[in-house]
Every structure is written in C-alpha cells, then in structure tokens.
Write a structure and sequence with these properties.
The protein is α+β, with helices and mostly antiparallel strands. It is about 35% helix and about 20% strand. The protein has 21 helices and 24 strands. The strands form four sheets. Strands 1, 2, 3, 4, 5, 6, 7, 8, 9 and 10 form a ten-stranded mixed sheet that branches. It has a six-stranded mixed sheet with strand order 17-16-19-18-21-20. It has a five-stranded mixed sheet with strand order 11-12-15-13-14, covered by helices on one side. Strand 11 and strand 12 form a beta hairpin. Helix 9 runs antiparallel to helix 10. It is elongated.
Length: about 625
Amino acid sequence: MAETTSTQPQSMEFQTEAKQLLHLMIHALYSHKEVFLRELISNASDALDKLRFESLTDSSILNSDTELAIHIKLDKTAKTITISDNGIGMNRQEVIENIGTIARSGSKAFLEKMTGDQKFDSNLIGKFGVGFYSVFMVASSVKLVSKRAGSDEPAIQWESNGEDKYTITEASKDDCGTEITIYLKEEESSYVEDWQVRSIIKKYSDFIAFPIYLPNEKGKEEIINQTKPLWRRSSSEITKEQYEEFYQQLGGFDKPLATMHTRAEGIMEYSSLLFLPSKAPFDLFSLDRKHGVKLYVKRVFILDNCKELLPEYLRFVRGIVDSEDLPLNVSREMLQNNPVIDKIRKTLVNKILGKLKEMAEKEPDDYKTFWNEFGPVLKEGLHTDFENKEKLQELIRFQSSMSENSDDLVSLKQYVGRMREDQKDIYYITGESRDIVEKSPHLEIFKAKSIEVLFMVDPIDEWIVNDIYNYEGKQLKSVTQGDLDLGELGKEEQDIKKKAESKFKKLSARIKNILSEQVKEVRVTTRLKDSPACLVADDNGMSSQMEKLMKSMGQNVPESKRILEINAQHLILQNLNSRYEKDPKDPELEEWVHLIYEQALIAEGQMVPDPLAYSQRINKILTKVSS
C-alpha cells in the first residue's frame, strides 16, 4: 500500500466550469451508477496496455516474468474499494494532464464546445477523458496514488471529494502502476459486497484482456474474469459445443441454427459473434420487445439490447459486437447516426442476409425451420430496408395453391420459374389463413387453368405487396382486386364474357339497384367456375383483409363499396335472368339478390351484416323446397 510522504500537500480549488462538468458527469451521463467500476477497470486495462506497448521499445520497464493484472480489495469496515494495476502509471505532470484534466482546462474546453445539442455534447465527453469522474456517483472521496514506469520521479497522490477542492502531493510507492481507493458514500455501501462486485465485473468487464483478482472468502486472491473473450478467438479454436454454451449464456434456450463469427481489421476494426436462433422469443412481436445484440467496446460491455446495430426486422439475431473505434462512454444518443455504427450495421446486415441465402440454398430444412419462426419478421424488411430489397426478395417465402400443405413453401424465383407460358403476372391472394384463402371462389379460374396463386396469410403481407410491386419484370396482382385479365390464357373466357355482358346487362342493372347501399358496381366475370358470385375491390381499393387488419388496430376505416361479380354460367344466375326477363318486378328477385350477396361475403370469411335476415331468407327457401 502507498503511504503519503511528509511533503506538504498542494491544495487547489475546482474552477466553476469544473464543477459544472462534474455535475454533468454524475447526474446526466450515466444511467446506472455501477458503471463507475467499469470505467476504473477500463482505465486500468488501458494502463496495462500502454506499459506492454512501451516495453516493446524499452524492455527495462517490464520484467519478462511480470504478470500484468488488476487487483481489487474490499474493506467492509472502512467501506472502501481499492483498485490497483501494475501498468504504465503516471508522474506528477501526467496526473495533472490525465486525472487532473477536469481541474485544469478540460472542463473549460468542453463547455466552450457545448452547443446545447445533447447528442453532439455527449460525444464530446469521450474526447476529454473524464470517465474517471463517474466514481463520484458513489464516492464521498477518492484517493489515487500513481508511479510512472521507468521514471525516477516519486509517486504522486491525488485526492478529492469531487466538490470544491483537490490535493496533489508526493507519495511513496514501490512499484509502477496506479492504486485508487474509493471511500463510499453511506447509501452506496452495497458496492463493497463481494457478490455485488463480482456481478458487476461479470456483466461489464468479464472479457478485459488482463486478469482481475479479488480475494475469496478465505482471503486468497482468485481470477474472476475470462481474459480472452470467445469472439476474439479464432473460430478454428472453438468447438460447436463452446459456441452453443456461449449462445445459451446470451439467453438462448435452444440451439442456434447458424453461427456467424467475424473479425474485421483495417480502416474499421471490430469483432462480432452472431447467432440465428431456432425458436422465436415470446416477445418477438410485443411493443417492448428487445434486440438480442450486445455492444462491447475494447472488450468492455457497453449496452444490452443495442437496437442501433441491426434493423428492427433482424431483432431476433443474438450475439455480441466488440468495436475498437468507439469511446467507452458511448451513449444511446451517440450511437444514432454514428458513422462507425452505420458501417458496422451495414456489414452485419450483409453478413446475416448472406448467411440466410446460403442456408436457403444448402440447408433447406434449416431454412424452413427459420422461416416458420421468423419469416413474418424478415418480411418487415421489404417495407423498411429499400437498400436490401433485392436480397430480401430472394429470401421471402409463401404458401401457394400448388403447395400440398402449409410447410410446402415457394420463393418468388421458384414461382416465376414455373409460371405458365403466356402468363404475364404473379398472382396472389391475402387472407387470415390457408384454410380460408384456398377455398376462396376467386381461385376457381386459376385452379381450372393450373395457374399458381401465392397465399399471403401473414398480417404483414398486406403491406409488403406494394413494396415488392414486381419481381423480374412480373407485377404482383391480387386475384381479389380489379378486373381480371389473364391475357392469352383467358382469351376463351373473354369471348364468353362479351356475349354474357349483353345478355345480363339488364339483370346486372337491377341487381345494382337492389344493392345500391352495399356495392359500387355489378358486372359479369370470368374468374368464377363453381360459385354464383364474388366480391372484388377496385385496382387501387382496400382489400377486405386490409380492412379487417386496420379495424383490429383501432383505425377508422372509411366505408368503401366493392364490386359484385356474377357468374353468367352458373345455373342460379341463369334462372334469375330468366325470372327477370319474365317479370322484372318479381318480388322474390330482391330476396335472391340479397342472398347471393351475403353468400359472397361468407365465402371470403366475412360476417353478413344482418344474420337474422339472412337466416329468414334461407328458411323461406327451405320451406318452399320441402313443401
């Protein structure tokens, strides 16, 4: 332990600017007081790094058998924490320049550069090296004793209560390095508990490159951190079991589907270890959902749930990113629009999407597992990440009318590759489930002509179809919107339609008159084979599924009338047309028209507006048939 010499201490007062900066450090910069220990351990690690670096050119300052380490001692009686290292240390001038920066010109320079912009001002803090002063969040006073390696100058002691004054004096210390003694405030005495310190180090500093020693219950010092993080080791050294164990430490309760371990060096330096889970977390779609990537800087834990590292649609990815280029006191505000983060983010997204593409091509069963868990989330990227739109289009999957079951998925590329000759567009239908859409009357002509239709049954699908718009020159067309045009594939039906339109012109007008409050238009269609009628939206109208989704979210949906399409080849419509021709004022005609409209609603999974009236109409028909 260091002892103060008889040299007279030099007492100095903090400048006004220094007091302001101390207040900012203690009350505004950090959201958790426990990070003081992270800052001090990080400073100690830096000092050890500097000694090791200088020893490359001056071997006399470091013996070959010296273990570079950090030691922590806890005194419950005195309520003190002592943190010491055998790093480079400081002489008097360096203490003033480094630790004393806040007492000298650092605070003034900082305040002069402040603009009032919180994000910008927070970024300035790291440039002045004042993270040491976070210790005053928990300390009533702090004593620092340091001796510079390779220097003949005596050790120097710096002491302050962080309020008005600080003192600098000579001290005695045998070895180089720095020792900091923290005298805890009465209400912060929990930080002297062994379990508390171990927990904080495990959370923030577990992968500091140097051993951190702490006495155990028997008083024997033991290393309490891992000195080489998994993500900084070569992937060739790591087994599959070690990856899985680490993944589970990150909170994964399953085994990962894929592991991505990367080390980037050069202009930008960082390490990343990312995992694709095989099971979705319970909060994947909740409003307070979390991202699974942690941010480290120089092996020091900085942020959990780091949303800035990956876009929202990749929130299911778990892992760690460790940057060499960010300051240790980086805040959430600093991460926004940060060029380093932006570059890392772009690289990580490319890495993940590339891994998914590789999985889809080489491990289709694993990709199917991934898609069943996270497919709807990945689709969100089509609506938010225009830069990677083409990559995402290759990754998305849908059920289809050609699929035997919900596990049989098709990509857009596969769809286009097996399109019928002369087919112009990619056809799709949206709905709540496969069971509903595959029975839709809108599919009848497509089934008859073996034209594949994509089943879009995820809620997000209603939003992304417009973001895809077309794929390889083929436009996406809804089978429930607009007037159907199959081109050459529907030429035969178009000829039939022209004749039917003339024959059913008056009946169509009569039906429109009866349903004037419900439908916008009535027209003959070729899309139906077995059903008498169906409802369609305009080309630019809102689909019935979108209306449902909007209403379920509490949105006010403006009333929109749809188009009733009738099948002129169906016996019911032919009988209705005959009855109309015999008696345009046939009183039962109106009942039949309402019934056809209500059946069209039911066929697409809608509720009839008046269930009692519908039931009465059915009863009338049954009564006549049975009499």
